TrEMBL record:
<keyword id="KW-1133">Transmembrane helix</keyword>
<protein>
    <submittedName>
        <fullName>Beta-carotene hydroxylase</fullName>
    </submittedName>
</protein>
<feature type="transmembrane region" description="Helical">
    <location>
        <begin position="77"/>
        <end position="97"/>
    </location>
</feature>
<feature type="transmembrane region" description="Helical">
    <location>
        <begin position="51"/>
        <end position="71"/>
    </location>
</feature>
<feature type="domain" description="Fatty acid desaturase">
    <location>
        <begin position="77"/>
        <end position="308"/>
    </location>
</feature>
<feature type="region of interest" description="Disordered">
    <location>
        <begin position="1"/>
        <end position="30"/>
    </location>
</feature>
<dbReference type="Pfam" id="PF00487">
    <property type="entry name" value="FA_desaturase"/>
</dbReference>
<feature type="transmembrane region" description="Helical">
    <location>
        <begin position="204"/>
        <end position="231"/>
    </location>
</feature>
<dbReference type="GO" id="GO:0006629">
    <property type="term" value="P:lipid metabolic process"/>
</dbReference>
<dbReference type="InterPro" id="IPR005804">
    <property type="entry name" value="FA_desaturase_dom"/>
</dbReference>
<keyword id="KW-0812">Transmembrane</keyword>
<keyword id="KW-0472">Membrane</keyword>
Length: 314
């Protein structure tokens, strides 16, 4: 969690995509090399920062989410309040799990690795989306961003924002042929111990959640389970799919390291868009945590512009 030396930056940038190859000779090569060095110097200043806030938010948020059930069942809080809090926590949970997916809280071999994994595990339970599955799919997205066959998020593409919002719901339907079938195919192609574990974890979490739903409904708390878990989950998944997948990657026509995502201006602002306005920085350097991508972007803005990236939205 301390500041990282510059020599580690290049390796961590590889989490996002292969390095861009420049011309073999000529001034363009030297210029691009200097731009890359400046880019990495800036990136290094935003890596290795304290990450305790994510751990506190994840564990505290999960504890609050669990507490919503008895509070609503006892009538201590109204269902509408429980719904709003739950939807907020379920949506925000993906942000904390996202940092754990990239091992930004603690990398393998570090003393706090267990905390990194715990944050990831608890953050995605409200979404009924196990961390093992979320991590595999997200890393595959980085490796194959905008590839129609290998990017797990490619089915989120739609011609317009409203169509994208509708598609976030349709893609979760079993007979639609969207994200669910795309995920299954990618997992089958990976055919690794990790992919098989992710499938097992998904089945167990979904069965456990369905059993809890049934037990709550059978006990007379159908409205509680609907308001505190079922509906917030679906709203959170649509919100996440729209802002983390569709908005920064539309129209998904390019796959280059500097072209597979874009800078955009959200009507809801940087925080409400979950920091995705500057998602480009995350794809370039996944080890820069979400709360530092905006600052890193504005320091890096001239460098990115010199590379031909459209920085006009911000």
């Amino acid at each position: 969690m301390s500041a990282q030396p510059l020599e580690t930056v290049a390796g961590r940038a590889a989490d996002a995509a292969p390095e861009v190859r420049t011309p073999a000779a000529g001034p363009a090569r030297d210029e691009r090399r200097q731009l890359l060095l400046r880019e990495r110097e800036i990136a290094a200043r935003h890596m290795g920062v304290p990450m305790w806030g994510y751990s506190v938010a994840a564990l505290g948020g999960f504890a609050l989410w669990v507490a919503l059930f008895p509070l609503a069942m006892a009538g201590i809080i109204p269902l509408w309040l429980g719904f709003l809090v739950s939807a907020t926590l379920a949506t925000g949970g993906y942000v904390t799990s996202h940092e754990a997916m990239h091992s930004n809280i603690a990398r393998k071999g570090e003393p706090l690795r267990w905390l990194n994994e715990l944050v990831g595990q608890v953050s995605t339970i409200p979404l009924i989306f196990p961390f093992s599955m979320a991590r595999i799919m997200h890393l595959q997205h980085h490796y194959h961003c905008n590839d129609p066959l290998r990017d797990p998020d490619y089915p989120d593409e739609a011609p317009s924002a409203w169509q994208a919002i509708v598609k976030t719901w349709l893609n979760r339907q079993p007979r639609n042929g969207g994200s669910i079938h795309h995920y299954k195919r990618i997992l089958a192609e990976l055919d690794s111990p990790a992919s098989r574990r992710a499938q097992r974890d998904t089945a167990l979490l979904q069965l456990g959640a369905m059993a809890f739903f049934f037990a709550m409904a059978w006990s007379g708390y159908a409205l509680v389970i609907a308001a505190i878990w079922w509906l917030p989950r679906h709203i959170a998944l649509s919100y996440i799919r729209f802002y983390l997948s569709w908005a920064p990657h539309h129209p998904r026509t390019k796959q280059g390291r500097y072209e597979n995502t874009k800078v955009f201006k959200s009507r809801l602002g940087h925080i409400m868009s979950m920091g995705m306005e500057t998602h480009l920085v995350h794809h370039l350097y996944p080890s820069i945590p979400n709360h530092r991508t905006k600052a890193a972007y504005f320091e890096m803005r001239d460098v990115l512009a010199a590379r031909g990236i459209d920085v006009s939205p911000l």
